[in-house]
UniProtKB/TrEMBL annotation:
Coiled-coil portions: 349-404
Species for this entry: Truncatella angustata
One Pfam family matching this protein: DUF7605
Keyword Coiled coil: yes
UniProt name for this protein: Nuclear GTPase SLIP-GC
Length: 908
């Protein structure tokens, strides 16, 4: 056993520790992960050796450290949320990124635009579970609440009856959603039931609140099974009387898909967030939770709309942009311009000609080349047709000659056998009624001994011959002449065919040149459009942030506002925004060439689709998290290895001291440890005090000021909602009623979400936004860094003092042996600082999201009352209820919001 222990000690001291230090210093993610796997194996080998020394306290301590380490490693997960309007191409983009033809539901499936779809790595190694999916359904209470909204939409605002109006109206959409779940329910029967009864219906009782798991060995099979589950019309088509749901998508909260794809291997989780327009509260909550946790946000928009609509500047609404400001999330945004394959050369040249040198002249050259193709290619085709006609005639003549050869060869054979033969009959001999010119022609042919036989009958008749007797010389002369003429005809045919090939090659070369020129020009247009779109989007994004900063500054202090003052470096923000212009369809066409289409000729390679670059960008997003996770684990391993090494090597140290000297050194160590504890405790308390001071002076004081200022504007905001549009109001009366009945939140497909609660809290958010951002993006990171520096200095001082005070022979060397472990402790503190910073970021995201719920709570009674209003005058009564509620709670609603946020911050 001793030999084994010694060998392990040498390995830890000479190989493992040295390699770990080098790998940690380099900080390469893939190398770190490889070493993590190797280190786990080493820990597994060390553990049984230590178990044989359980009576030794040092060994027991090391064993516990090893066992804890084996369970401590957690791979980093990076959540990337894809946001964008319905039809922006998010699902197709994900399919391209994960390398599957079709696995994420696209907009042919109605549920896909409303449900968050999460795609992550599949840990299963079973072939039949290579592809997995989970479909999570909303709870009964969530469905009951949704039915309540649907009942409200079905109710005519001027009566208590139900009406479906047209299919595109709120009532029509609500009725279609109810019928999809209850296909046998009729409108008349709906008036006799309520949302609670329907939510308890036996046909959906087993689904609500459940999670269905699907397994498949292939992507196609998984897609079919998910599709069948989400839209089960086909499943129920044989049973029209089935009382079960015909479609399940209204009940689905989230879809999770697990598969093995290279982009997901390093912990990336892709989330296809719902398109604009879903009104389901449960699904909206899921989407908001994902956004709260996202490490990266990719805004996806078709390239045509991305620039024209300034999508990066608007960034899906002011509310979303304000949330990014609170989250400190501008740096995690990337922009993806999709569908770059949708381009027309003529339009592209017109928009790009002033930006791109010679582009217009290249386009004119292409048009000239196309005109040349339009003229020359048809002419060449016509010439080829003429040549083919000539070949046809020559071929017939050659066939006739072959028949004549056969006749004369038969005559030659008979003569050689000793049979007398005579000349075959000519055309003139068989046709008595001929013109003089014909007879002359026959005579001329007779002189040349050319017999013109035109059919098989002639061949049979003349093979025996019925004319004058022929000599062998005459027969041979005829055979020679026929052979020469046959050779000439065949040569002519070959020359004609060669001419056809040349002309056809010339035509093809001209067409290929035109296609190549068009492809090159199209490729250049795609590249140039991507280039200027990237620049414009970056500038629009920075302008949007600047406008938000200016609005905040005006709200805080309008009198001292200076529009020339730049709160931040907006050029740097523009330059640092990652923008990718991608074509998922072109990438898929090149990935699976059997489905390639000529419309993608402008994409010369995979890189021009920019999908590979987007994949690389995603992997770069994982690097910090992967390095941090690996470094934390390996640093802990190093501390354990150093302790193990010190214990194993203690026998080699020549240390001999008296009890008095030992007591003295122990006391020195105790004093140093006590001083270190005091220093660290003081640093920790100072950090807490500094944080509270920042909260009190910068945030809480700002809260108080914001409550007073924001309360002055909310009455006007509320009255603007209900004012008729022809009098300057914001909404149509039907829209206003729908919002009020839905708790102040309303969304329709293809339209921006309306959120009255968010409208009310906006003045308050604007007033505290800068202070909030400064606190969590600047001040708290500074406090954490100060704590780390203080701790580092204290630990180094602790080691130095012990080193200088303990001078006994051999002891100092033991202390030096622990210095690497000291450095590992410092690294661990640095890692903990970064981890704590991430925790603070998560806590502050939770805290700032308590601002709007505070308003919603204050307005709860009003929204509940509005939901009960029906019949004539209901819109006017709703307006009075809302305005009165806002007026009565104009100050307390903000106090409640700030109180909820403070509660989270104090816990932090």
């Amino acid at each position: 056993m001793a030999t084994t222990i010694n060998t392990t000690s040498d390995e830890i001291a000479g190989i493992t520790i040295q390699r770990l230090n080098q790998v940690i210093a380099r900080g390469i993610p893939s190398e770190l992960e490889e070493v993590v796997d190797c280190t786990k194996t080493t820990l597994g080998n060390i553990s049984p050796l230590l178990q044989s020394f359980t009576d030794n306290p040092n060994a027991s301590r090391c064993l516990k450290g090893v066992e804890d380490l084996m369970l401590s490693y957690k791979a980093a997960h990076i959540i990337i949320g894809l946001v964008g309007e319905t039809g922006s191409g998010k699902s197709s983009l994900i399919n391209a990124l994960i390398g599957e033809k079709k696995i994420v539901p696209t907009n042919c499936m109605r549920a896909c635009t409303a449900v968050s779809t999460e795609i992550s790595w599949n840990e299963s190694e079973l072939p039949e579970e290579r592809y997995q999916a989970e479909i999570e359904f909303i709870t009964r209470e969530e469905w009951r609440a949704e039915l309540g909204h649907l009942f409200s939409d079905l109710s005519d605002s001027n009566s208590s009856t139900f009406t479906t109006n047209n299919k595109d109206s709120d009532a029509g959409v609500a009725w279609a959603k109810i019928k999809s779940i209850y296909p046998l329910l009729e409108l008349e029967a709906l008036t006799k039931t309520n949302e609670s009864c329907l939510a308890r219906d036996a046909s959906i009782r087993g689904l609500l609140g459940s999670t269905e798991k699907i397994y498949a060995p292939s992507a196609d099979l998984l897609y079919k099974r998910v599709h069948q589950y989400i839209d089960s019309k086909e499943k129920n088509s044989d049973s029209r009387e089935s009382s079960g749901p015909s479609e399940l998508w209204p009940l689905i909260k989230v879809v999770r898909i697990f598969l093995k794809s290279e982009i997901l291997r390093n912990g990336i989780v892709l989330v296809d967030l719902p398109g604009v327009g879903d009104s389901n509260a449960a699904r909206a909550t899921v989407a908001d939770k994902y956004l709260e946790k996202c490490n990266g946000i990719w805004v996806v928009a078709p390239i045509i709309r991305a620039v024209d609509n300034k999508a990066a500047q608007h960034l899906l609404g002011e509310t979303f942009k304000m949330q990014l400001k609170f989250d400190g999330g501008f740096s995690i945004v990337s922009f993806v311009c999709s569908r770059t394959d949708e381009i027309l050369i003529e339009e592209a040249v017109e928009s790009l000609k002033n930006r791109c040198e010679n582009l217009d002249s290249e386009y004119r050259d292409l048009l000239a080349l196309k005109d040349r193709v339009d003229v020359e290619v048809p002419a060449k085709i016509a010439e080829i047709e003429q040549l083919r006609d000539t070949i046809t005639k020559a071929s017939k003549e050659a066939s006739s000659l072959n028949k004549k050869l056969q006749v004369w060869q038969t005559l030659a054979t008979k003569q050689a056998q000793g049979h007398p033969v005579s000349a075959p009959l000519t055309e003139g001999s068989k046709r008595k009624c001929t013109t003089q010119s014909s007879q002359s022609s026959k005579r001329r042919r007779s002189q040349h001994i050319i017999i013109d036989l035109t059919d098989d009958e002639d061949e049979d008749a003349n093979a025996s011959g019925n004319g004058r007797s022929l000599s062998a010389e005459e027969i041979q002369t005829m055979l020679s002449r026929l052979a020469v003429e046959n050779i000439g005809i065949k040569k002519n045919i070959r020359e004609l065919k060669a001419r056809i090939i040349t002309i056809d090659d010339d035509a093809q070369a001209l067409e290929d040149k035109c296609k190549e020129s068009e492809s090159n020009l199209l490729s250049r247009c795609i590249t140039e459009r991507n280039k200027y779109s990237r620049t414009d989007i970056q500038n629009h994004f920075a302008q949007g942030i600047e406008l938000l900063d200016q609005e905040t500054a005006i709200r805080e202090n309008a009198e001292n506002f200076d529009h020339n003052h730049r709160i931040r470096d907006y050029k740097q923000i523009a330059d640092s925004l990652p923008v990718f212009c991608v074509s998922s369809r072109a990438y898929q066409a090149k990935m699976y060439p059997t489905k390639a289409d000529a419309e993608f000729a402008g994409f010369v390679d995979f890189d021009q689709t920019e999908i590979p670059q987007l994949k690389a960008h995603a992997q770069r997003m994982t690097e910090l998290g992967r390095v941090a996770a690996c470094t934390k684990f390996l640093s802990s391993c190093l501390r354990v290895f150093q302790s193990l090494r010190a214990w194993l090597d203690v026998k080699d140290l020549d240390v001999s001291i008296s009890e008095a000297e030992a007591a003295r050194e122990i006391q020195i160590v105790k004093d140093c440890i006590l001083e270190l504890e005091k220093t660290l405790d003081s640093a920790a308390k100072k950090s807490v005090v500094d944080c509270r001071d920042i909260f009190r002076k910068q945030l809480y004081r700002g809260f108080d000021i914001a409550v007073k200022k924001a309360s002055l504007s909310v009455s006007d905001i509320a009255s603007g909602w209900g004012t008729p549009k022809d009098e300057g109001g914001l909404y149509h009366w039907a829209t206003y009623g729908a919002v009020c009945r839905r708790g102040g939140i309303y969304a329709r497909k293809g339209q921006d979400k309306i959120d009255f609660n968010e409208n009310l809290v906006k003045p308050f958010k604007v007033l505290i936004a800068d202070a909030w951002e400064a606190t969590f993006s600047r001040d708290l990171p500074r406090i954490l860094n100060d704590f780390y520096l203080t701790t580092k200095i204290a630990i180094e001082g602790f080691h130095g003092r012990i080193r200088s005070d303990v001078q006994h022979k051999g002891t100092a060397n033991r202390i030096d042996m622990l210095r690497p472990q000291l450095m590992m402790h410092i690294e661990a503190i640095k890692s903990s600082q970064a981890e704590f910073g991430q925790n603070i970021d998560g806590w502050q995201r939770e805290a700032n999201r308590e601002l709007t719920p505070g308003i919603k709570q204050a307005m709860a009674n009003a929204w509940s009352s509005c939901k009960q209003e029906k019949g004539r005058g209901s819109i006017a009564r709703m307006r009075d209820i809302v305005c009165e509620q806002v007026q009565r709670n104009q100050k307390t609603m903000f106090e409640k919001s700030s109180k909820l946020a403070k509660k989270h911050l104090d816990i932090m």
